[in-house]
Amino acid sequence: MSITLAKMTEAHRKPVIDILNHYILHSTAAYREEEVGYRHFDGMLPGNDVISSYVAIEDNTILGFCVLEFHKGISTFKKLGDAMYFLLPEATGRGIGKRILEQLEIDAAKKGITKIIVDICDENTKSIEFHKKNGFVEYGRLRNCWEKHGKKLGIVFMEKEKGKT
After folding, report:
1. So what's the pLDDT on residue 103?
2. Coil, helix or strand for 160?
3. Exposed, middle or buried: residue 11 (CB in 10 Å: 0-12, 13-18, 19+)?
Protein backbone atom coordinates (compact mmCIF):
# COMPACT_ATOMS: atom_id res chain seq x y z
CA MET A 1 0.00 0.00 0.00
CA SER A 2 1.20 3.48 -0.82
CA ILE A 3 0.82 6.40 1.54
CA THR A 4 0.56 9.87 0.06
CA LEU A 5 0.61 13.31 1.63
CA ALA A 6 -1.99 15.65 0.22
CA LYS A 7 -2.57 19.30 1.00
CA MET A 8 -5.41 19.61 3.46
CA THR A 9 -8.66 20.80 1.90
CA GLU A 10 -12.27 21.25 2.92
CA ALA A 11 -12.92 17.64 1.88
CA HIS A 12 -10.77 16.50 4.83
CA ARG A 13 -12.68 18.42 7.52
CA LYS A 14 -14.58 15.48 9.07
CA PRO A 15 -11.79 12.86 9.19
CA VAL A 16 -9.22 15.35 10.50
CA ILE A 17 -11.47 16.58 13.31
CA ASP A 18 -12.52 13.01 14.09
CA ILE A 19 -8.84 12.02 14.52
CA LEU A 20 -8.18 15.04 16.72
CA ASN A 21 -11.27 14.30 18.81
CA HIS A 22 -10.16 10.69 19.26
CA TYR A 23 -6.98 11.95 20.93
CA ILE A 24 -8.86 14.57 22.92
CA LEU A 25 -11.22 11.98 24.37
CA HIS A 26 -8.95 8.96 24.75
CA SER A 27 -5.42 10.17 25.45
CA THR A 28 -3.22 12.87 26.85
CA ALA A 29 -1.55 13.49 23.48
CA ALA A 30 -4.06 16.29 22.86
CA TYR A 31 -4.32 18.79 25.69
CA ARG A 32 -8.02 19.63 25.42
CA GLU A 33 -10.63 17.78 27.48
CA GLU A 34 -13.67 18.50 25.36
CA GLU A 35 -14.20 17.59 21.74
CA VAL A 36 -13.85 20.36 19.18
CA GLY A 37 -16.50 21.09 16.59
CA TYR A 38 -15.92 20.84 12.87
CA ARG A 39 -15.43 24.62 12.66
CA HIS A 40 -12.10 24.10 14.48
CA PHE A 41 -10.80 22.81 11.14
CA ASP A 42 -10.88 26.31 9.66
CA GLY A 43 -7.86 27.30 11.76
CA MET A 44 -5.82 24.44 10.32
CA LEU A 45 -5.87 25.53 6.71
CA PRO A 46 -3.00 27.60 5.27
CA GLY A 47 -3.37 31.33 5.68
CA ASN A 48 -2.63 33.83 8.39
CA ASP A 49 -0.17 31.98 10.66
CA VAL A 50 -0.62 28.48 9.20
CA ILE A 51 2.14 27.74 6.69
CA SER A 52 1.06 24.30 5.55
CA SER A 53 -1.21 21.42 6.47
CA TYR A 54 -1.43 17.93 5.03
CA VAL A 55 -3.30 14.68 5.38
CA ALA A 56 -1.70 11.25 5.09
CA ILE A 57 -3.84 9.04 2.86
CA GLU A 58 -3.81 5.32 2.10
CA ASP A 59 -6.52 3.68 -0.01
CA ASN A 60 -8.72 6.79 0.25
CA THR A 61 -8.52 6.66 4.06
CA ILE A 62 -7.13 9.57 6.07
CA LEU A 63 -4.54 8.10 8.45
CA GLY A 64 -3.45 11.37 10.01
CA PHE A 65 -2.79 15.05 9.56
CA CYS A 66 -0.22 17.73 10.29
CA VAL A 67 -0.04 21.50 10.61
CA LEU A 68 2.97 23.85 10.54
CA GLU A 69 2.48 27.41 11.69
CA PHE A 70 4.51 30.45 12.64
CA HIS A 71 5.19 30.51 16.37
CA LYS A 72 2.64 32.69 18.16
CA GLY A 73 1.90 34.58 14.94
CA ILE A 74 4.32 37.31 15.97
CA SER A 75 6.69 38.74 13.34
CA THR A 76 9.70 38.68 15.66
CA PHE A 77 9.35 34.86 15.73
CA LYS A 78 9.31 34.55 11.92
CA LYS A 79 12.18 32.03 11.94
CA LEU A 80 10.41 29.76 14.43
CA GLY A 81 7.70 27.28 13.49
CA ASP A 82 5.37 25.10 15.56
CA ALA A 83 4.50 21.65 14.27
CA MET A 84 1.56 19.46 15.24
CA TYR A 85 0.59 16.06 13.88
CA PHE A 86 -1.68 13.20 14.84
CA LEU A 87 -1.96 9.75 13.28
CA LEU A 88 -4.59 7.13 13.86
CA PRO A 89 -3.24 4.73 16.49
CA GLU A 90 -3.11 1.86 13.97
CA ALA A 91 -1.06 4.03 11.57
CA THR A 92 1.86 4.69 13.94
CA GLY A 93 5.18 2.92 13.51
CA ARG A 94 4.90 2.81 9.71
CA GLY A 95 7.15 5.74 8.80
CA ILE A 96 4.28 8.16 8.21
CA GLY A 97 5.42 10.53 10.96
CA LYS A 98 8.89 10.70 9.43
CA ARG A 99 7.43 11.53 6.00
CA ILE A 100 5.22 14.21 7.55
CA LEU A 101 8.15 15.73 9.42
CA GLU A 102 10.31 15.76 6.27
CA GLN A 103 7.58 17.61 4.36
CA LEU A 104 7.09 20.13 7.14
CA GLU A 105 10.84 20.78 7.20
CA ILE A 106 10.78 21.47 3.44
CA ASP A 107 7.87 23.88 3.89
CA ALA A 108 9.59 25.55 6.85
CA ALA A 109 12.77 26.11 4.85
CA LYS A 110 10.76 27.72 2.02
CA LYS A 111 9.41 30.25 4.54
CA GLY A 112 12.80 30.97 6.12
CA ILE A 113 12.07 29.05 9.31
CA THR A 114 15.28 27.80 10.85
CA LYS A 115 13.87 26.05 13.94
CA ILE A 116 10.81 23.86 14.44
CA ILE A 117 9.41 23.28 17.90
CA VAL A 118 6.93 20.78 19.31
CA ASP A 119 5.38 20.36 22.73
CA ILE A 120 4.49 16.89 23.95
CA CYS A 121 2.74 15.53 27.04
CA ASP A 122 5.46 14.15 29.28
CA GLU A 123 3.80 10.73 29.46
CA ASN A 124 3.86 10.38 25.65
CA THR A 125 7.23 8.63 25.58
CA LYS A 126 6.71 7.24 22.06
CA SER A 127 6.40 10.74 20.65
CA ILE A 128 9.37 12.01 22.66
CA GLU A 129 11.52 9.12 21.36
CA PHE A 130 10.29 9.66 17.79
CA HIS A 131 11.37 13.29 17.93
CA LYS A 132 14.77 12.43 19.43
CA LYS A 133 15.36 9.91 16.62
CA ASN A 134 14.53 12.65 14.12
CA GLY A 135 16.95 15.26 15.38
CA PHE A 136 14.92 17.07 18.03
CA VAL A 137 16.43 17.94 21.39
CA GLU A 138 14.64 18.78 24.59
CA TYR A 139 14.94 22.41 25.63
CA GLY A 140 12.60 22.51 28.59
CA ARG A 141 9.87 20.98 30.70
CA LEU A 142 6.90 22.20 32.64
CA ARG A 143 6.17 19.64 35.33
CA ASN A 144 2.70 19.03 36.74
CA CYS A 145 1.26 22.01 34.88
CA TRP A 146 -2.01 20.51 33.67
CA GLU A 147 -4.52 17.78 34.48
CA LYS A 148 -6.46 15.37 32.32
CA HIS A 149 -8.20 12.08 33.06
CA GLY A 150 -7.49 12.60 36.75
CA LYS A 151 -3.71 12.79 36.27
CA LYS A 152 -1.25 15.61 36.83
CA LEU A 153 0.85 15.96 33.69
CA GLY A 154 3.70 17.96 32.29
CA ILE A 155 4.86 19.21 28.91
CA VAL A 156 8.17 18.46 27.18
CA PHE A 157 9.38 21.14 24.76
CA MET A 158 11.60 19.98 21.89
CA GLU A 159 13.32 21.80 19.04
CA LYS A 160 15.07 20.99 15.78
CA GLU A 161 17.32 23.45 14.01
CA LYS A 162 17.64 23.50 10.24
CA GLY A 163 20.40 21.20 9.12
CA LYS A 164 20.52 19.22 12.39
CA THR A 165 19.80 15.49 12.34
Report:
1. 97
2. strand
3. exposed
